DNA sequence: CATGCCATAAACCGATTCGGTCAATTACAT
DNA sequence: ATGTAATTGACCGAATCGGTTTATGGCATG
């Protein structure tokens, strides 16, 4: 791995992206080092030169995405916002920012949850708790509850928001998606929900 | 294929399900006939005895899911309902019914959209237009528009509903999901949206 | 220009897996 | 007992796998 870390970022990124893409798409076993090499523009021997084994590359990736997530969370301080919908917006924007740089990171993270290959279960199990936060980062608080209209079933709303987040997440794993358009849509949607479900005095 | 069609349904279904699962999960190229055989409880030579080649099996599956969809649509007459949310509910219930019998059919259909292997592009291209309907079946009509509150941006609502449908669809591709629970949730959600976004006189 | 060094990749390795076949066995109807 | 169809273990050559060997070319140093 040391050999790889000495590379410039513009040399590292294509390799990381290709690896995230292949592992994310096919899972550990069916992703091949040859595919990753070809997609990243380096030769297969170079991949092994940098990472040693396939497993070591997977391990490196898992630690890499972990650190990316941790850095993003530290910078955004999502918990500092005291309104539910604001937290949702900040978290969403944060994810968009990450996806602009690493389009395949989400697909890779999701694939780690579904990974069953014995050769890497120790790796996936270790980062799962932290990866969870990448999806569930906006717990409902007491002070949010009172803001909703009495007639609104808040559990249903939360579930709906979570589902939409998953829907967006799934769309964002598509390489052809327009992140700017998705961001704009999402902001409109959140605003619409807030203005229709909150009591008037909290708008 | 004739050999396979002579089998009883209880002998056919495990094979169809295993094939839908494998192709849906791994795509055409990385799905192997050995895996499919093992998952379906028959031997590999039997698979080739029934279907001839891997491609023929894939072709058979594509036609099979097509006919399943067509039959379901004919029976449900979704377009006969004149309220948007009613159409959504009927379409959702229809999908649930199909998924109870074919848990992997949705994942397979989605995978056909993402299929890139040259060996089967002719097959996927052919059924794509019809498969589209499986997702987009509830166009907004003029008579729906007037029912919403003036303040509601209907495009945003439609987009939200579609996203949620995708979120549910993604959840339903998970073999561990509880279809009954999802159905119940979905009905609650639709009801909540309707009662908060429609004008009072249309409730 | 000679030399040593290091990044790079073509070609290759044995092992495994692939799609597909065949010979032999089983189950069963007559 | 016998013929027939269903079924499969064992096998095929080809492809692909993770990983390595070896040869190449650039490049700094003298």
From TrEMBL, chains A, B:
Alphabetically sorted, this entry's keywords are: DNA-binding
Ranges of residues in domain HTH tetR-type: 9-69
Asked whether the UniProt record includes DNA-binding among its keywords, one would answer yes
DNA-binding region extent: 32-51
GO molecular function per UniProt = DNA binding
* Designated name of the protein: HTH tetR-type domain-containing protein
Q: Which organism is it from?
A: Lacrimispora celerecrescens
